[in-house]
Amino acid sequence: MKTVIFDWGRTLYNPEEGALFSDTKSILEYLRSKNYTLAIVALATAGQSKITERMSIIERENLAQYFVSIKFDTENKDKMYEDTLLELGLKHKDVVIVDDRVMRGITWGNKNGCKTIWVQNGKFANELPDEHSGNPSHTITSIIQLRDVL
Q1: Max alpha carbon distance in the chain (Å)?
Q2: Phi, psi dihedrals of residue 24, rounded to the nearest 5°
Q3: What residues contact residue 81 under an 8 Å CB cut-off, 6+ apart?
Q4: Considering the entire predicted model, what is its pTM?
């Protein structure tokens, strides 16, 4: 497993605080040092202005250097995952999905044979796995814990 696809909100970025999580840059630097390929796939259900805002944050925080692909869309996260895998020439089994939502990223990853890591923190921490989503491969409460599970 050498490719990690991150969600954005409540995974790398804390929308309630309007800032990156304190460990975001250090975990991205760590993963890069271990030769992981990194990508972002995230919904921006509030519309195009939210996508523009997120890209501005990524530029301001100099985060683009860590990612080979950054995809935001207002709908159909599943298609973004598939497009990313196709674009990067990846097999599902070689991908790790890191997401704060069991009902989105973790469900997609589990159904498609990816390793899944649930960041159980914040707004969706009580959105528990069920028979539809399946259980994540790992559950963490902070992305810095990726060091322990990857």
Answers
A1: 40
A2: -60, -55
A3: 5, 41, 97, 108, 112
A4: 0.95
- Beta pairing class for 19-20 and 13-14: antiparallel
Domain ranges of the chain: 3-149
According to CATH, the topology of domain 3-149 is Rossmann fold (3.40.50)
The three-class DSSP label of residue 136 is: coil
* Spatial separation of the C-alpha atoms in residues 57 and 128, rounded to whole Å: 30
Per-residue pLDDT 10s for the chain (150 aa) are 599 999 999 999 999 999 999 999 999 999 999 999 999 999 998 778 899 999 999 999 999 999 999 999 999 999 999 999 999 999 999 999 999 999 999 999 999 999 999 999 988 889 889 898 999 999 999 999 999 999
- Return the bridge partners of 42, or none: 72
